[in-house]
Backbone:
């Protein structure tokens, strides 16, 4: 059977007819004015004949009446509730199956209807959304609403095998929240000590109402860990808050780009703006974003940080945000992440000092015995002086000190002497007026003294560390790391995993454990401070890491579709006929930790495709709404599309026409795009198959 439009007659006959005591004119007047107008022959709003035409599909609901119906959301819901539908949940469940199988309702419509169920808990909310969506089809649709269709709609509830849509949505609620998350990891397993109180305080503040909160503190103090722990709390405790859409993402400097690269949403195939989708969600539900700022916070002359209009657009919407960054925002409520109490700092040191290769996550309770067993009273007093007087109670520094003491077999006295010899003291960068503020450059200079790259003697470990300096500061799961770094370090994946764990235990790498489908996954990254320390001591030769950098320096993709398709789907191959216009899309993203300078694109168009002059457009941070470029993309020199910071991306589009085929055989034309810049050159392709039979 052919599918039919989702129109008002479908809405009426499927959801209302036979399930309410009200007549057709009464229902129409109820929708329009809230007035039943039940007296005989008095139908001043909608008379009986007009109501019959609307519901039969012989006449479309007029623009004026459609506007009257939909203009007041809260009022419309009240009107719909007055229908007093019998067996409403069964009616909706049966109708929803019909809507999916027998109508041309869009994915967006289906999603909006399903969302209405678990966002409000009111089945009449489904009616309200369905009514609005059905009125979007404005043509008279009598040819679609046949007597057979009406009978099918009236008998939907007779099918006893229809699943309960409401029960299904209730059971899937937690999964739905996680599926919208923009991180591949469902739940982060935190190993932080002494932050439970501040995490709970943050969660309590966000639960109550829309908030914009920033976590701020010196580098290495634990902002990201707090952010992850709060995120996991909201995923795991869905009964205690009202957020229906929760997301975690790493901010590279272009929020639109970060959202587009990590989130699936309606219209993504056609490069629709993900922020508009988020704003749409936020208009009818509660959205909470956890944003971890992974940009380098100590810019030198080569660094570029442009104002991000997309971030401001999200801030200006009805979306709650928890933002972890050292760069202060005056329009956010500030939570300063203060150093931990000295007792917690000692526990952190002892956790690292006592750790073995096969240790799991240790808790504060686990470390209490370590304090008693590992330290004398004099040792503990010296350690407290080191942590408070030299390390500034910085979490990253304390972890490093614990790892150094363990690896070299030092006593606390030897640790103290080592720090004196190295003239290590980050407290000299602390502000006299604000003990929570530390000069970033001073912090970096002091950390460089603790991360002595020359002490790394293992060639594979040196290779891995150098490789991490070329990556963006985003946790990567251990399987991907093993694949990327094993070949680069010339070891097998098993030994690579051991090397990664050793480097993490010695605090060269950070570990973010996550849990997905009851499986615990290790994710590794390198703190920006550690990256800067390595780069200050050694000049990383990209040629020595050519295999790795070619994997990560950029994501390059080319796709194609027919230009005039109503529902475009981008693929690597498209079928066309002579004279038909096709559209190419090139996606490029900087996945490294370095800035791309003067990134150049060159397209090698085959002779069977004719480029359409003036069709090249680019969408990026500078041009979020797009701008037309020159036609030089198809020349030997190509086009320069500018500089791209870590994580930044661009989309480039252009059109071409399939030429006449000089033979009777089908021909495949392969279009090739080349990208040059960053760490080298890459190329991708897309195919256009021209059918000789259709001329």
Residues:
């Amino acid at each position: 059977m052919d599918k039919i439009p989702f129109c008002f007659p479908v809405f009426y006959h499927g959801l209302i007819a036979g399930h309410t005591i009200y007549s057709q004119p009464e229902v129409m007047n109820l929708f329009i004015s809230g007035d039943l107008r039940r007296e005989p022959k008095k139908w001043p709003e909608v008379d009986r004949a007009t109501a019959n035409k609307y519901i039969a599909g012989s006449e479309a609901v007029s623009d004026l009446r459609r506007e009257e119906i939909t203009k007041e959301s809260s009022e419309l819901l009240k009107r719909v509730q007055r229908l007093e539908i019998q067996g409403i949940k069964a009616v909706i469940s049966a109708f929803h199956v019909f809507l999916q199988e027998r109508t041309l309702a869009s994915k967006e419509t289906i999603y909006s209807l399903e969302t209405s169920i678990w966002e409000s808990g009111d089945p009449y909310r489904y009616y309200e959304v369905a009514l609005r969506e059905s009125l979007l089809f404005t043509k008279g649709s009598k040819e679609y609403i046949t007597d057979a269709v009406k009978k099918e709609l009236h008998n939907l509830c007779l099918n006893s095998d229809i699943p309960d849509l409401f029960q299904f949505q209730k059971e899937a609620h937690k999964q739905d929240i996680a599926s919208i998350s923009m991180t591949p990891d469902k739940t982060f397993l935190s190993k932080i000590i002494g932050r439970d109180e501040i995490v709970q305080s943050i969660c309590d503040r966000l639960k109550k109402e829309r908030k914009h909160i920033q976590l701020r503190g010196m580098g290495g103090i634990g902002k990201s860990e707090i952010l992850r722990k709060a995120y996991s709390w909201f995923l795991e405790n869905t009964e205690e808050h009202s957020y229906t859409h929760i997301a975690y993402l790493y901010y590279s400097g272009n929020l639109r780009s970060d959202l587009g690269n990590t989130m699936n949403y309606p219209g993504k195939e056609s490069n629709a703006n993900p922020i508009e989708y988020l704003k749409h969600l936020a208009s009818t539900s509660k959205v909470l974003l956890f944003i971890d700022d992974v940009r380098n916070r100590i810019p030198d002359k080569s660094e570029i940080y442009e104002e991000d209009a997309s971030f401001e657009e999200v801030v200006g919407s009805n979306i709650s945000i928890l933002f972890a960054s050292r760069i202060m925002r005056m329009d956010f409520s500030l939570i300063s992440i203060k150093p931990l109490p000295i007792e917690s700092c000692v526990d952190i040191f002892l956790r690292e000092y006592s750790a073995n290769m096969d240790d799991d996550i240790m808790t504060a309770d686990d470390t209490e015995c370590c304090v008693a067993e590992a330290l004398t009273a004099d040792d503990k007093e010296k350690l407290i002086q080191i942590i408070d007087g030299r390390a500034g109670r910085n979490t990253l520094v304390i972890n490093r000190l614990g790892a150094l003491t363990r690896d070299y077999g030092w006593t606390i006295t030897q640790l103290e002497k080592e720090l004196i010899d190295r003239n290590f003291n980050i407290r000299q960068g602390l502000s006299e007026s604000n003990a929570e503020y530390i000069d970033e450059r001073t912090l970096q200079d002091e950390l460089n003294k603790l991360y002595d790259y020359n002490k790394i003697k293992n060639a594979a470990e040196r290779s891995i560390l150098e490789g991490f300096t070329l990556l963006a500061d985003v946790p990567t799961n251990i399987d991907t790391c093993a694949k990327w770094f094993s070949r680069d370090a010339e070891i097998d994946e098993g030994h690579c995993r051991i090397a990664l764990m050793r480097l993490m235990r010695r605090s060269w790498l950070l570990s973010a454990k996550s849990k997905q489908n009851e499986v615990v996954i290790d994710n590794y990254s390198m703190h920006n401070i550690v990256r800067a320390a390595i780069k200050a001591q050694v000049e990383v030769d990209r040629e020595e890491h050519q295999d790795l950098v070619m994997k990560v320096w950029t994501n390059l993709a080319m796709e194609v579709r027919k230009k005039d398709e109503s529902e475009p789907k981008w693929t690597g191959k498209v079928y066309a006929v002579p004279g038909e216009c096709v559209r190419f899309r090139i996606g490029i993203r900087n996945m490294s930790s370095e800035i791309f300078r003067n990134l150049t694109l060159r397209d090698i168009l085959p002779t069977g495709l004719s480029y359409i002059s003036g069709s090249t457009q680019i969408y990026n941070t500078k041009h979020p709404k797009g701008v037309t470029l020159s036609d030089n993309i198809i020349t030997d020199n190509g086009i320069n599309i500018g500089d791209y910071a870590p994580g930044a991306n661009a989309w480039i589009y252009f059109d071409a026409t399939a030429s006449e085929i000089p033979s009777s055989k089908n021909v495949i034309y392969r279009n090739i795009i080349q990208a040059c810049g960053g760490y080298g050159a890459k190329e991708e392709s897309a195919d256009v198959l021209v059918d000789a039979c259709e001329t």
About this structure: The chain has five domains: 8-171, 176-336, 342-450, 453-550, 553-690.
